[in-house]
Structure formats: C-alpha cells, structure tokens
Amino acid sequence: QVQLVESGGGLVQAGGSLRLSCVASGIIFSVNTMDWYRQAPGNQRELVARILTTGRTTYADSVKGRFTISRDNVKNTVYLQMNSLKPEDTAVYYCNAASIIGTPVNGWGQGTQVTVSS
Asked: What is the pLDDT of residues 78-96, one digit of tens each?
C-alpha cells in the first residue's frame, strides 16, 4: 500500500523560507519521478515542481528561481525548499509519484499547509 506523508509546512512571513518533506512508502522510490503539487482554496490542484530519476528538475513559472526540489533515494524522501515566499504561495502542498504521461499515480496524502502572511 502506497503511503505519502508530507510535513514541514507552517506560517511564515512574506520573504521567508520553508522546507517541505515527503516520505514515500509502498513504492520503489528510486525509479519514480516525484512531484510536488499545491492546492489553494477555491483553486484546482496544480503541479509546482518535478524531479526525474536522473535528477533533472522542472518548475512552474510561478515558483521558478524561488523553489528547489530534491530527492534522497536512500531515505525515500522528496524535498521542496521554498524561498522568497509570497502570499500567493499559500496552499496545501502534496507530493506524488508521476506516471509515464505525467499524471499522479497514487491517492493523495494529507498534505501540509503553507500559509504566507503579507
């Protein structure tokens, strides 16, 4: 059974930083592309960052240059370092593995709330 456990969210002032973590179990982590998504109230869930098994990364334009995704295949963990946070980054953040066509393959974990105050 796949389990995704996100943590590291919190309340931070604009311009601050947070580091999110997601521990995955029930999957062969090292062979999976891993993604971070976020969902703000009233909005659809959106893809924020992706890291391939090769380590190559891609980002949504809205976070490019501010967020960094990384992974530790020994710890089965994917991270999201978020710097220069803005109020519009406020959302619940989720991780997931990506299918070969880029869609999420698993059910969603509980997510971690990030709130950025102005």
From this structure: 999 999 999 999 999 999 9
